[in-house]
């Protein structure tokens, strides 16, 4: 699923962003703070914004893209309103977390790392969430669900639909 960047919807954000770039373009190491600002403003790094960064900072697009894809703090796709994370740390994994994750993928019809077309849900596979005693664990935004079975997944997702 490819998401279309809405220029009109983001007009004010783009104006603020271009001002931020202008204020930072001559600073050493400007690329990271500019990418961070873009991520904060837009919630992800649309290709169109990466092109603006490249042009306005006079940095090759390949370098901008390389930095954006290297650091996990950046995302090239929008995240959903509800971010679902399934822990695949050791305790969760040995207690069936992969089956839980598979059921989330099946229920939402998207792969790990993707967002539903309506931008309602995103799925990530995480490492230890620090709730090993509750394994396996699934998190929806700040809500933690533990001691899960595959049968629990659809009921949890339905709460957010």
From TrEMBL:
Annotated TM spans: none
EC code(s) of this entry: 1.6.5.11
Pfam families according to UniProt: 2Fe-2S_thioredx
PROSITE patterns: COMPLEX1_24K
Tagged with keyword ATP-binding: no
Keyword Oxidoreductase: yes
Keyword terms, alphabetized: Oxidoreductase
Any one GO molecular function term: oxidoreductase activity
InterPro entries noted in UniProt: NADP_DH_HndA-like, NuoE-like, NuoE_dom
Source taxon at top rank: Bacteria
Coiled coil: none
Entry protein name: NADH-quinone oxidoreductase subunit NuoE
Lineage: Bacteria, Bacillati, Bacillota, Tissierellia, Tissierellales
Gene designation: nuoE
